[in-house]
Amino acid sequence: MAPQQPRTSSAYALDVRGKRHKVTASDRALGTHPGDIVLHEGMPARFYRPANRTVAAPVGAPEYVDFALAERGSVWFVDQSRMPNRVVQQRDGRTLTSMPMPKPYTSGGAVTAAGGTTALALLRGGTVRGLMVTADDGAHWRNLTGGGIPWQDLKRDLVFLVLRALPDGRLLVGEREGRYWLADDRSNRAFHQLKTPVPFASFTVQGKTLYGIADATKATYNLVKGEGLYASDDGGRTWRRQGKRGLRR
Description:
There is one protein chain. The protein has 249 residues and is mostly beta strands. It has no helices and 23 strands. The protein has strands at 2-4, 12-14, 20-22, 24-25, 37-38, 47-49, 54-56, 67-69, 75-79, 86-91, 94-100, 111-114, 117-124, 127-134, 142-144, 161-165, 171-175, 180-183, 191-193, 202-206, 209-214, 228-232, 240-241.
């Protein structure tokens, strides 16, 4: 379920059947728990707790920050208030790890965490030039600047970056309306490009299923070729169009 904010009424969540449920906005920041969901759309930083349908700020994190939630409830974010920027892991507002960004890179704050993997974008000259990755809760980090991804070709603004971690720890990297790469295994050392049936304006992961949406990125009434929702259960080898039959690629 994803909370929505209508203009004329209080916040609500839609379940898988389309039924509305009232959502409570907490007046105070809360510690995060397993099962909480990051609300990626917009700021300030907020997460959603399906267990009691509550929206809250993560305790201890800056008010305006992109953050990720690991399965055990840890909050990951980049502290950009000082130089060099620092990658921070917190739980219940207590800092567990804090790692400076490696020179000569900075970070735009994009971060993801799942399956024991945490990764964030490395920026140089304002463009993405790789990832900083850990698979042991921040004890050790490595820079991923190759792996089969042509980082030098990623020239669009950071807001177009797609960075997701799958439940098995593999990373998905790409650009909206562009190309996407998926790690061959959870070591995240080698990636292969995905073949998509149409350019996706947005791309996300839910469990082991990949979802791509073909839609206009600007407020126009023009239809996009192949417009709709696509899903893949086999790592992008084949795709099905929701509501359509027989689409494979």
